[in-house]
Design brief:
The chain has about 850 residues and is mainly beta. About 15% of the residues lie in helices and about 40% in strands. The protein has ten helices and 37 strands. The protein has a 16-stranded antiparallel β-barrel with strand order 18-19-20-21-22-23-24-27-28-29-30-32-33-35-36-37. A three-stranded mixed sheet has the order 2-5-4. The protein has a three-stranded mixed sheet with strand order 6-8-7, with helices on one face. A hairpin with a 7-residue loop joins strand 28 and strand 29.
Length: about 850
């Protein structure tokens, strides 16, 4: 029913609820002022049931002499109304007394919500102020209805209607019902930019968080109109321009308009770009006599001739201020100044170092962390209570807290302390869910169909710990893994990681054998700088090869020599000389007439399980603007692993991988990818085939997995790739959007050219073994007599191709940052290749989480 009650007296207030007109009467007030002053004891209270008489009388404050004049009675009346306890208050004079007649507001029996499907009752109950067993208040109900409507607006439903209704119950009690018509989701139908000349609208859509509605929008939420997000987008656009040299940029307005025909919002950003500036000079000044400003020059990231970049200026200020603090100048403040030359379009940057105010941190107050422990937040600060206040360190702490990804929002502000030289840091947080359960699926031309189930928690027990368990099952790859990370080992900023895994790779079209690996790897991570990190690790794993019996039985044709299948192989003239390599008797190719696996594979099988114990490290340099979809910056990884700390194998493996991204013209991004590696033998331990580098499309696209490099060339065997100890690769790629498609689709095209090489096999080439042992079906010579069986299957030799040939290719690709995960399709044509390389022109890979 409609929300309305009859009110006795003179004043009726009609209040309008959100979306639905609702009449809400306020308390009537009838005041007959006494002719003479009264006392508190002369006040009589009528109509009260729950509120005590003395409580009501206490709102009437007597003046000097304990009397009440008309003004004080009026003040008491207003105070009673403001309590919200009464729906009607009247004050009358009866003879020499004042009579206060009240009608108490009902008590709420229950609060219910009807019609809500998109937002749960629990969330709405937590937001409204009207509570069961609380006092019913019309203004409060009005506020609650508006709050409910606001919650729906935040979730993108602007056509919501909220109707509050009351149901009267006995004993002055009421039930409060909020009837909700949710309406359809209100999205952003178009995002436009006005005044942008330097960057296209397509490029700027990458910068902002607000996206246009498309057919895949149901998988995300950034197409929902949110005024706070639009306002934040203004700042993102401004900082993007400032990063690219536009020091005068202004995002004048972000205009939003609801289009009733499209049933959505049109968002328009109005931009005044100004001119692009370069750095003319960089100077350093210090008002602190004992601090040489030039000694901080190495901490500046601003270079003469480069584009003026506000982010580099801010990082320079932060690092210089922190360094000054380390040198004992705790209150030093670095203030950047930019003097612009409007004609030459240059900026002269000056870093002025001054003695700041001597301010100390009195307290650090943390609010909003209901789950995360206080110490998890405090350890991100390089300062604590009692230290000198340093804004650069506070900003760094705020950035670190945001990077934890535990919170929806992080804001650090200051409040005055107990004295003029004290400040209180206030950390306001809003937590978010940090647990993930995912079912992933994908398909690639290498691994076939693949599925993974995983559960992870980024903030385990509120202690900032990371834990993950995953199970993978596919056509050719299976296994499980357990991971745990303690980001602050012994309260130091050192991350301890523990990984336990089991992997199984099955034989497929690219390899004739399978592998089983069971391993454990602890690691330590050090953040040397924001762009430089170091990881040291220890790995111990057990590995073995699996091979079908038919590929290791050493059987020859059954129609020769009475079918005993054990005669030496005498190559026909067609195979007597292959690529300049003799295949005649001395090479020992006597066991291949039914397609034997290569000698290194069978020897690995005969050796059984092998234990590898290795120490390694990775040094990473990362200046990418976006780790998931980079358009600018450099990423370099240098890795080394030393095996031989116990175990069965020893080697030194070194690898370098560098990627450089740079924006070109019209939203085209250029990518240069360089890589190389070398495997060195340590001591007298023979290198295993499994320790060699195996390359294919990961080095030069257009080739099959394991399709490049040294290969067993026996024409009657499986011709396995046996790997190499040296490789190099270089790639140049251009990625460009499809301008005729909506930005939110996430499709890009690519053209590229690859070149590389793999060579230097140093694994086993022969297999000499004493004793008459039947290993892989091959009969060995007897050492006691030195005699050789009449029909030996020697299996002692390996003939392989190991030419250092440059492989190259050109191709096109389709890159899709889809809601189902990153997908990529490539078609590449080899230009140069080795004689025995294997080609795979089309390649596809991708996955999803749902």
């Amino acid at each position: 029913m409609k929300f309305g009650l009859r009110v006795r007296g003179g004043m009726l207030a009609a209040l309008i609820m959100f979306a639905v007109p609702v009449a809400i009467p306020l308390a009537n007030v009838v005041v007959s002022a006494p002719a003479a002053a009264q006392t508190v004891n002369s006040i009589e209270v009528v109509g009260n049931r729950r509120v005590e008489v003395e409580t009501i009388r206490s709102y009437f404050k007597p003046g000097p002499g304990g009397t009440l004049d008309a003004g004080r009675i009026d003040d008491g009346l207003k105070a009673l109304i403001e309590t919200g306890l009464f729906q009607d208050v009247q004050i009358n004079r009866q003879g020499g007394r004042i009579v206060v007649t009240v009608v108490e507001n009902p008590v709420i029996g229950r609060v219910a919500f009807e019609g809500n499907k998109k937002i749960k009752d629990e969330q709405l109950s937590a937001e409204v102020q009207s509570k069961p067993r609380g006092t019913f208040s019309r203004p409060m109900v009005q506020s609650d209805a508006s709050r409910i409507a606001e919650i729906y607006r935040r979730s993108g439903r602007y056509d919501v209607h909220v109707t509050p209704e009351i149901i009267e119950q006995p004993n002055n009690r009421v039930d409060l019902i909020f009837t909700i018509e949710e309406g359809p989701k209100t999205g952003v139908k178009a995002v436009e930019f006005v005044g942008n000349n330097a960057f296209s609208s397509y490029r700027l859509k990458d910068v902002i968080k607000t996206h246009e509605t498309n057919i895949l929008s149901f998988l995300g939420g950034n197409d929902v109109y949110d005024p706070d997000r639009v306002e934040a987008d203004r700042d993102l656009i401004r900082r993007f321009y400032l990063k690219h040299g536009y020091a005068d940029v202004q995002v004048v307005a972000a205009l939003t308009e609801y289009d009733p025909e499209k049933k959505g919002f049109l968002v328009t950003f109005k931009i005044e770009e100004g001119q692009q500036y370069r750095v003319a000079s960089v100077d350093f000044q210090s008002s602190i006599s004992t601090l040489d400003p030039n000694s901080l020059r190495s901490f500046s990231r601003v270079n003469v001739g480069s584009l003026y970049n506000v982010e580099n200026v801010e990082k320079s200020v932060e690092e210089m201020q922190i360094e000054a603090s380390r040198r004992g100048y705790a209150f030093a403040v670095v203030r950047p100044r930019g003097d612009r030359n409007f004609e030459a379009h240059t900026v002269s940057v000056v870093f002025a170092i001054d003695e700041g105010p001597r301010t100390y941190i009195e307290r650090i107050n943390i609010r909003g962390n209901t789950r995360t422990r206080d110490y998890v937040i405090r350890r991100e600060f390089d300062i604590s209570e009692g230290d000198a206040y340093n804004r650069a360190l506070v900003d760094r702490a705020e950035r670190r807290l945001k990077n934890l990804d535990f919170f929806k929002s992080v804001k650090i502000t200051t409040e005055p302390g107990s004295s003029s030289d004290r400040v209180i840091l206030v950390v306001d947080l809003e937590e978010k869910s940090t647990g993930d359960f995912s079912v992933s699926g994908g398909y690639s031309t290498t691994d076939g169909a693949l599925a993974e189930v995983s559960i992870s928690e980024r903030n385990l027990l509120g202690r900032g710990l990371f834990a993950k368990a995953a199970v993978t099952y596919g056509q050719f790859a299976r296994g499980y893994s357990l991971s745990f990370v303690e980001p602050y080992l012994l309260d130091y900023r050192v991350a301890l990681g523990l990984d336990f895994y089991q992997r199984q790779q099955l034989a497929n079209n690219f390899i004739s054998y399978g592998t089983k690996t069971l391993g454990f790897s602890p690691r330590l991570g050090f953040q040397l700088r924001e762009d430089l990190s170091l990881q040291v690790r220890y790995s111990i794993y057990q590995q073995e090869i699996t091979l079908p019996t038919t590929l290791a039985n050493c059987n020859n044709r059954s129609d020769i020599n009475g079918g005993n299948g054990q005669i030496p192989f005498n190559p026909t003239p067609a195979f007597a000389n292959l690529n300049g390599i003799s295949l005649a008797g001395s090479n020992g190719l006597g066991c291949f007439l039914d397609g034997e696996a290569s000698l290194p594979v069978r020897k690995e099988l005969a050796n059984g399980r092998t234990l590898t114990s290795a120490l390694g490290y990775t040094l990473s340099y990362n200046t990418l603007d976006n780790n998931k979809n980079p358009t600018d910056g450099l990423l370099v990884d240098f890795k080394q692993d030393f095996a031989g700390v116990g175990g069965d194998v020893s080697y030194l493996k070194t690898a370098l991988d560098a990627k450089y991204f740079t924006p070109l013209v019209s939203d085209i991004v250029g990518i240069v990818h360089l890589q190389g590696g070398i495997l060195n033998k340590i001591g007298n331990t023979e290198l295993r085939m499994l320790d060699h580098f195996q390359m294919g499309p990961n080095l030069v696209r257009g080739f099959a997995p394991n399709g490049i490099g040294p290969r067993d060339i026996n024409p009657f065997g499986t011709q396995d790739a046996i790997g190499g100890t040296k490789y190099w690769g270089a790639s140049l790629e251009l990625q460009m959007p499809f301008w005729f498609l909506p930005k939110e689709v996430g499709l890009k095209g690519a053209v590229y050219a690859d070149a590389g090489g793999l060579w230097g096999y140093q694994g086993p080439t022969s297999w000499a073994q004493t004793g008459e042992v039947n290993v892989s079906g091959c009969i060995r010579p007897t050492p006691a007599t030195g005699t050789v069986p009449a029909n030996p299957g020697t299996c002692l030799g390996l003939v392989y191709d190991d030419q250092n040939t440059v492989r190259s290719s050109v191709g096109v690709g389709l890159v899709w940052q889809s809601p189902f995960g990153p997908l990529r399709f490539d078609y590449a044509v080899p230009l140069t290749k080795g004689k025995f390389d294997r080609v795979q022109e089309f390649r596809f890979g991708g996955g999803t989480t749902f």
